[in-house]
């Protein structure tokens, strides 16, 4: 969903019935913005909390 030039929103859903989020992400095209969002989500997942 285009918000304004170079700014997009992604509707993130964890599991059906679970939590959701509307997250802004940026790029001159939708494809570039999705690539940046995918990279960020991958880093967030791999850098998440570690078990003690």
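^ structure tokens above, recovered residues below v
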């Amino acid at each position: 969903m285009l918000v304004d030039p170079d700014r997009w929103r992604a509707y993130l859903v964890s599991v059906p019935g679970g939590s959701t989020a509307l997250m802004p992400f940026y790029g001159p095209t939708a494809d570039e913005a999705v690539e940046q969002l995918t990279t960020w989500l991958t880093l967030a997942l791999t850098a998440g909390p570690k078990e003690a």
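The chain has one domain: 2-46.
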